[in-house]
Design brief:
Number of strands: 0
Number of helices: 6
Shape: elongated
Largest sheet: none
Length: 122
Amino acid sequence: MRARMKTSRSVFYRVVITAALLQVMLFASGCSIKRVAVNKFGDALAGGGTTFASDDDPELIAAAAPFSLKLMESLLAESPNHLGLLTAATSGFTQYAYGFVQTEADKLEPSDEVMAVLRSRR
C-alpha cells in the first residue's frame, strides 16, 4: 500500500512539474509553437484518463483531481476545439462531481444548509 501511495504521489508530482515547465515554455515561445505544445499536452492528458480511475487511494484522487481539471480548463482556453481534451474535461468534471461532491451531499441531512451549497456545485 505504501509503495502504491509513493508511486501515485510521484506521478502527481511529475505532472505538476511538467505543467509548470510547460507554462514557462508556453509564455516564453511564439503563438504557433504555443498552440502545438498545448495540443500535444492536451493529447497526453486526454489519453491518460484511466490513471485516476485505477488508483485505490480516494483521498489522493480527491486532492489531485481539481488541479488536473483546472489544468485542462487552462489548456481548453488556448485550444477550445480539442476534442480529446473536451472529452477528458467533461468526463473528469462528471466523475469528480459524482464521486466527491454528490457523495458528500448525500451524507448530509436534508435540512442541513451545507447540503444546499454542495448540491449547487453540481
